[in-house]
Amino acid sequence: MSAGEGLLQGVRVIDLTRILAGPYCTMMLGDLGAEVIKIEAPGRGDDTRHWGPPFTESGEAAYFMCVNRNKRSLTLNLKSERGLEILKDMISQGDVLVENFKAGTLSRWGLDYERLQELRPGLIYCTVTGYGYTGPYSSRPGYDFIVQAMGGFMSITGPKEGDPHRAGVAIADISAGMFAASAVLAALYARERTGEGQRIDMALLDSQIALLTYAASNYFVSGETPARHGNAHPNIVPYQSFTARDGQFAFAAGNDSQWEKFCGAVDRPQWLHDERFRTNSARVQNRDLVAAALDDLFVTRDAAHWLALCEQIGLPAGPINSIDRVFEDAQVQAREMRVTAQHSEDGDVPLLNSPLRIPTAPTSIRRAPPTLGEHTEEVLAEMFGLDAASVAALRQEGVV
Predict the structure, then answer these.
(1) Where exactly are the structural domains of the chain?
(2) What confidence tier does 4 reach under pLDDT thresholds 50, 70, 90?
(3) Exposed, middle or buried, 367 (CB in 10 Å: 0-12/13-18/19+)?
(4) d(Cα 374, Cα 94) in Å, to the nearest integer?
(5) pLDDT value of residue 3
(6) Which of 25, 102, 12, 130 is nearest to 68 (CA)?
(7) CA distance to 13, 84, 113, 147, per residue, from 76 (Å)
(8) Could you tell me the pTM of the whole model?
(9) Catalytic residues
(10) How far from chain centre, in Å, is Cα 157?
(11) 100 and 38 in contact (C-beta within 8 Å)?
(12) CA atoms within 13 A on the CB side of 117
């Protein structure tokens, strides 16, 4: 395998997704080397192309840019009979179909799972919807904010005394995209052994509830509804933000050994003998008392002092960075989490890198996010042998 090919080289993904959850899934597959053909409505395209400001110099929304690298854009009018025929022909040459229309949309087009398997035996068909294809909410449109509210995420996010908060990014959308990509990869692996396709039903609500993890487990075991603790952890104390003399920082003593080491470093032997402080279980039960004692200590020095001390004794701590400071961080720079790609109209554009580190077959950013319909002629020529005049005729008819 040569550099830049990726583990999914040779896998063709027909991408009928837009907004965030579906595009995040197909971007992950593209990062791993799959050929992703993004199908968009002529004239307008993915809604997120218009979600700004900010926009690039050519008018592309930053939001669109964040989840559409490693894709080619083809415009296709799926409301036309000819457009649907082209889509069917594309599916017959694909390996994976991902879409996030309202539940049942493709079935109404005559493209239910059985028909898709006739078009392309072994096809992996993944739908990403708000609530899935079963249950009383299956026909509802799905929005990340609403799902975070319904799925309990907001009830455990935010200050202890105050309003529930959503996450700072669309975590329900993003998690659904990641789970969908995982399911597609598992289905592709199974197809290698069985030759069979799979039907994947991915829901935002399911995905967000899966993220509740220990919050849900705490409820299952105790029967008590979890409360908000602000930046503090429900099961570990101390594990939160604290205020130093010049600002806030994040600090954690993840186990009793770390707590003992910290108490020795700050000359607080009394905390090791106080039954309220000695074990994590006791500290959880007396979290306000522990936090108050640490507040009194930390406010005596600048954050840099405490961060240096924690670094010296091997305890987890870190600054609370704004986004600009994140990309100035030496570790972030060493891991190359900010990269550039050559955009057809904007030149070098900055993008986030993939976090998947596979040294033997690295992910790569082979393509910047495409302009609308940028690859229509290229894709139709490759897949169907259409020449420029034929594509121009389709464009004249409003098909592409």
Answers:
(1) 12-211+336-396, 239-326
(2) low
(3) buried
(4) 20
(5) 47
(6) 25
(7) 16, 8, 21, 30
(8) 0.95
(9) 173
(10) 18
(11) no
(12) 10
Assigned CATH class of 12-211+336-396: alpha beta
Q: Which CATH number fits domain 239-326: 3.30.1540.10, 3.30.1330.30, 3.40.1170.20, 3.30.365.10?
A: 3.30.1540.10
Q: How far apart are CA 207 and CA 323, in angstroms?
A: 26
Nearest to 247 by CA among 310, 294, 306, 302: 302
Which whole number is the average pLDDT over 13-19? 98
Cα 25 from Cα 71, distance rounded (Å): 12
**In whole angstroms, what is the distance from residue 153 CA to residue 150 CA?**
8
Question: pLDDT tens-digit profile of 349-390?
Answer: 999 999 999 999 999 999 999 999 999 999 999 999 999 999
SS3 298: helix
Cα(339)–Cα(333) distance, integer angstroms = 10
- Supply the pLDDT for residue 5: 78
> Exposed e or buried b for every residue in 100-131, given b needs 16+ CB within 10 A?
bbebeebeeeebeeeebeebbeebbbbbbbbb
Share of the chain above pLDDT 90, in %: 99
Residue 21 one-letter amino acid: A
DSSP secondary structure letters along 97-135: EEE-SSTTHHHHTT--HHHHHHHSTT-EEEEEESS-SSS
**What contacts 337, CB < 8 A, 6 or more positions away?**
327, 352, 353, 355
Of 325, 377, 368, 320, the closest CA to residue 347 belongs to: 368
For the segment 236-274, what is each residue's pLDDT rounded down to a tens digit? 999 999 999 999 999 999 999 999 999 999 999 999 999
> pLDDT tens digits for 294-315?
999 999 999 999 999 999 999 9
Report phi then psi at 200, rounded to 5: -110, 125
Helices 376-384 and 81-91, axial angle in degrees (round to 10) = 60
Phi, psi of 260 (to 5 degrees): -60, -40
